[in-house]
Design a protein that fits this description.
The complex is a heterotrimer of chains A (about 300), B (about 350) and C (about 325). By secondary structure, chain A is α/β, with parallel strands linked by helices. Chain A has 2 domains: about 140 residues, NAD(P)-binding Rossmann-like Domain (Rossmann fold); about 140 residues, Dihydrodipicolinate Reductase, domain 2 (2-Layer Sandwich). The longest helix of chain A has 29 residues. Chain B is an alpha/beta fold and about 350 residues long. Chain B has a single domain, classed as Rossmann fold, CATH 3.40.50. In chain C, about 65% of the residues are buried. Chain C is built from 14 helices and 8 strands. With about 325 residues, chain C is α/β, with parallel strands linked by helices. In chain C, helix 7 links the parallel strand 6 and strand 7. Classes of the chains: A alpha/beta (about 300), B alpha/beta (about 350), C alpha/beta (about 325). The interface between B and C is medium-sized, with 30 and 28 residues.
């Protein structure tokens, strides 16, 4: 029996995000994780990877310089500050990079909207969790209105799913999400709001998109919203339409909910899961393109 | 390529502080020193002191500064970062596996004293201090040339200083409430001291401890949430100085050229298993500190104590007894508060930070 | 120097009651009267603070800059304060503007369990030499010891006072005493209290806070504020004066300011209506009240059911979008 060809990928960053990505990669029919890289062999992520039989390294970015052929694609799940250093090195090594940090160096990818185009880039950026949840909806609203003034996205997440870095960087989250909303929907003004809710049991991530549209075609919007949600569910199984398009108090309102898969992270952390699911979708698209190229080349 | 030179006032201050101890420091000559947390306030001043010893007294001491972002520090302070006998390594002390091959001396100063970080991320500071110290000591056990490790601890290990106790001696231990996250830093520092004592006992590692108090001078960052940093920052901006409580809280501030000298002397001459306070023995109330700082600015600056009449006076005191360092190591603080503040202001205005 | 510092958020909390429609003329008129009365701190802005004008919580009639300019011009001896919630307001966009426009006091708030999101905002304002308080909103949703820990965090970031808010108007005086005592006991900075009147306890609770050692108390003219309104400023001042506690505020001055507020800015005096009683019992943020009454009419559900369900879900300030979701759910279960 021949094994189906897979794209070899490595994960840089052995924290919660990196470890969850690893589990998702192992499940993918198109990706083969060949190396899991961190700085400390004693970390929980390293132990998990080792237990899953994946090769590990504590040499950080040096691991790729030492062994440039180890993979074709690298997920960088470190920090924005570190990604600034890693990006040029990985580019020189000819790696496709999927950037999980808010470094904003590469092309923004929201799989439901621009998967094909973004997966041609050599540095693919996954925006923010709120961006992954709301941009497909904002983009859809943009298609319904030729002159869209304003979009607003409000995400509520479980307090426990927001780590110290997220809490310290709310301002960057807001700025990055707003910029992406404007560029994908074509609206002139955008506002992003992030709310942390400490309730126990933890709440699922909930995102509401508002727009100021006069006289929206609700039946058409509802039909289209269902299609968009279905297309996202293909790569984020826990994504669902909670409040279908409503017109209330002069505003269009749509609410979605994201529940996580609970791979390495708890299932209430839908905010972390959605960005990881999107990254896997992007990597699989890169894999398809490159495996197709190889196949044509062989033929 | 010519090396950018050391700031002149830092050179002359180090000269004044170190001069009396040159012969005591002789064992540092032609040897290698590792500083963990090497790019923080303590590490920067140790580096300045070693640079001074090498430039003016031909010590030929090699220095390795380790911290998670040491290369950024090297770019920011090229007069230290580009010295051929200085090595800057991007290493988080928690991940330290072995010491530089020939390291004879270690100053272990890795841990941010920023109370804001301790509040937001207490588990991280615990891990940095406890796992970091443990990693360092494990590596030291396997190292052949270690002559002494100086563990940089904190005066906060004493818990709250009673108001009637003028100066805290090394033998005083009050109490800390371990049940609150606010104890994370102090309790970790205590455990780090116990770790050092245990490695000392079990593996005969030569370790001394320095318990740090408060410092004023160059390399202090004005955004740190401490009274003196706030006063200097507000005074430079020309705004009022605000004091909480009745202004009778007492602190003392040592000049960092003294601090660096003390640490090097303790490293070389300290007793194994001994702890020494490092700080200035003369207390000052926050009110007179504010008056001093306001008086140094050309423009009139008002001092605003509490906005409310019945201010609850939550006074505290944080002043070391440094008799032991004087008696056993011949150390004394050579700089007074006025000079220290003036240097901090000059540095802050020139660095525009 | 007064014994107790009165902070007056009439022009901020009151904005909730008029769906954030206060205009520059009203702000100017009230500021003039407040300044004349010697009210030490006057808070101005959208009900949810700087940068909060939005579809989620309501859009302001005029932007932050216009509000702050109108207030600044007419506050001579009173300090100008703003409410700031990280997650809505950012340092670059909103704090920078307020600092530029001469705001004196920054009250950086968050849900009572999330103090660490205020670290950068508090540090930044302190660095700019501004006066900074930490504000713990919806404080009934945390235990006294958790509240104390969150307040300690704010103190460590540089907050020069910590104010706890009874944002849902749900406390009884003993609960206030317990919490304020714990904070006064454990913190090194002054403690403040901000009341709502859903259960008719605003003045009694403010008094309990003062007796337990609180040094900052919020009150609004005629109680103009979200839901059932706040502690009524002029009553608070009178009660404190009767107890011999000096606020530095002139009684006639504050009465005049309150009369002016009733004439010029308050379209409908706050009352404790049936829905606000339920909202207080349910422990839901007072700012929800105008949204709940509108949406319950639109979706034909009982606003009391809506409030109880929101309370059961543990929603926090800023989660106004959940109201529609819950209304639709109630509507479905009715059928």
């Amino acid at each position: 029996m021949t094994r189906p060809p897979k794209l070899s990928v490595a994960i840089l960053g052995s924290g919660n995000i990196g470890t969850d990505l690893l589990i998702k990669c192992l499940r993918s029919p198109l990706l083969r994780p060949t190396l899991f890289v961190g700085r400390n062999l004693n970390s929980a992520g390293m132990a998990k990877a080792n237990g899953l039989g994946v090769r590990i390294s504590d040499r950080s970015i040096q691991a790729f310089i030492d062994e440039p052929d180890i993979c074709d694609l690298v997920f960088d799940a470190t920090s924005a500050q570190d990604h600034q250093v890693h990006a040029p090195i990985l580019r020189a090594l000819g790696k496709v990079v999927i950037d999980m940090t808010p470094a904003k160096i590469g092309t923004i990818c929201v799989p439901a909207v621009n998967l094909e185009e973004a997966s041609k880039a050599d540095n693919i950026n996954m925006v923010t969790c709120g961006g992954q949840a709301s941009i497909p909806i904002a983009h859809m609203i943009g298609k319904f209105s030729s002159d869209l003034d304003y979009i607003e996205v409000v995400s509520s997440i479980a307090s426990r799913s927001a780590g110290p870095a997220t809490r310290l960087n709310l301002d960057e989250y807001i700025a990055t999400t707003e910029r992406a909303i404007m560029s994908f929907s074509g609206c002139r003004r955008a506002k992003a709001i992030l709310i942390l809710n400490p309730a126990t049991p933890c709440i699922d991530m909930q995102t509401t998109v508002f727009a100021n549209i006069v006289d929206p075609d609700l039946p058409a919007l509802r039909k289209r919203a269902e299609e968009v949600v279905a297309s996202i569910q293909r790569y984020v199984p826990g994504y669902e339409l909670l409040v279908p398009p409503q017109y209330e108090h002069g505003r269009l309102v749509i609410t979605i909910k994201t529940r996580g898969l609970g791979d390495y992270l708890p299932s209430y952390a839908g905010n972390l899961d959605i960005i990881n699911c999107a990254a896997i979708a992007a990597a699989e698209s890169v894999a398809r393109i490159s495996l197709l190229k190889e196949a044509t080349h062989l033929a | 390529m010519r090396l950018p030179s050391q700031n002149e006032s830092i050179t002359s201050d180090l000269n004044c502080a170190i001069e009396p101890h040159l012969s005591a420091l002789a064992p540092l000559r032609n040897s290698e020193l590792l500083v963990t947390g090497g790019t923080g306030f303590v590490g920067s001043w140790v580096a300045e002191a070693v640079a001074y010893l090498n430039d003016h007294h031909s010590f030929e001491t090699r220095l390795t500064l380790q911290s998670p972002r040491a290369s950024q520090f090297a770019r920011r302070h090229p007069h230290l970062g580009r010295r051929p006998e200085f090595q800057l390594q991007d290493i988080d002390v928690r991940n330290l596996l072995e010491l530089p091959r020939q390291a004879a001396w270690v100053i272990h100063a890795a841990a941010s004293p920023d109370a804001r970080q301790h509040a937001s991320d207490p588990t991280r500071i615990i891990e940095t201090i406890v796992s970091g110290t443990s990693a360092l000591l494990k590596a030291a056990v396997r190292s052949s040339d270690i002559r002494r490790i100086l563990n940089v601890s904190s005066g906060l290990v004493y818990g709250a200083q009673p108001l009637q106790l003028e100066r805290v001696p090394e033998t005083y231990f009050g109490s800390l409430d371990p049940s609150s996250f606010t104890a994370a830093y102090a309790e970790s520092k205590r455990l780090a001291e116990t770790l050092c004592a245990s490695y000392g006992s079990q593996y005969r590692l030569p370790i001394s401890t320095a318990r740090m108090f408060a410092f004023v001078g160059p390399y202090q960052m004005l955004d740190r949430p401490w009274a003196v940093n706030n006063f200097v920052r507000d005074a430079i901006q020309g705004s009022n100085l605000r004091i909480h409580g009745d202004g009778l809280t007492v602190r003392s501030y040592m000049y960092p050229a003294d601090m660096a000298t003390w640490l090097l002397v303790m490293l070389v001459r300290g007793q194994d298993g001994s702890a020494y306070n490092v700080g200035h023995p003369d207390g000052v109330t926050l009110l007179s500190l504010a008056e001093k700082i306001a008086g140094m600015r050309p423009k009139e600056i008002r001092i605003q104590t509490d906005v409310l009449r019945e201010a609850r006076s939550i006074r505290s005191r944080f002043v070391p007894d440094v008799a032991k360092a004087g008696r056993e190591l011949g150390l004394s603080a050579r700089f007074d508060l006025d000079t220290s503040i003036r240097r901090m202001m000059d540095w802050a205005t020139s660095e525009a930070c | 120097m007064p014994d107790i510092l009165i902070s007056d958020p009439t022009l901020r909390d009151g904005n909730h009651a008029v769906q954030h429609q206060l205009n520059a003329h009203q702000i100017a008129a009230y500021c003039m009267a407040a300044d004349r009365a010697g009210i030490p701190v006057v808070e101005v802005g959208h009900g949810n603070g700087l940068g909060a004008s939005s579809m989620q919580v309501g859009e302001s009639a005029i932007d932050d800059a216009t509000m702050l300019r109108a207030a600044r011009e007419h506050l001579v001896s009173s300090k100008l304060a703003v409410h700031v919630i990280p997650g809505f307001a950012t340092i670059k966009r909103d704090l920078a503007l307020a600092i530029d426009l001469g705001v004196d006091v920054f009250r950086i708030g968050c849900h009572c369990t999330e103090a660490d999101i205020t670290q950068r905002h508090i540090s930044h304002c302190r660095q700019m030499g501004k006066e900074v308080y930490g504000v713990l909103m919806m404080s009934h949703m945390a235990s006294p010891s958790l509240l104390r820990d969150e307040a300690l965090k704010m103190q460590s970031y540089g907050a020069e006072a910590v104010v706890i808010m009874d944002s849902a108007g749900t406390y009884l005086p003993d609960q206030v005493t317990e919490r304020i005592s714990e904070l006064v006991d454990r913190l090194g900075v002054p403690i403040g209290f901000h009341a709502h009147n859903n259960l008719g306890m605003a003045i009694a609770n403010s008094l309990a806070a003062v007796k337990a050692g609180a040094q900052i108390v919020d009150g609004t003219a005629r109680g103009f504020g979200a839901g059932a309104g706040n502690a009524q400023l002029e009553v608070l001042v009178a009660v404190l004066h009767r107890l011999g506690i000096d606020t530095g505020i002139d009684l006639y001055g504050v009465l005049d300011a309150a009369d002016l507020a009733e004439r010029e800015i308050i379209p409908k005096l706050p009352t404790i209506n049936s829905v606000s009683v339920v909202s207080g019992l349910a422990g839901v943020f007072s700012g929800f009240s105008t949204h709940v009454s509108r949406i319950s009419t639109e979706y034909q559900v009982d606003p009391r059911d809506l409030f109880f369900e929101l309370g059961r879900r543990g929603v926090v300030a800023g989660q106004e979008d959940v109201i529609i979701e819950v209304a639709i759910q109630l509507q479905r279960s009715k059928r």
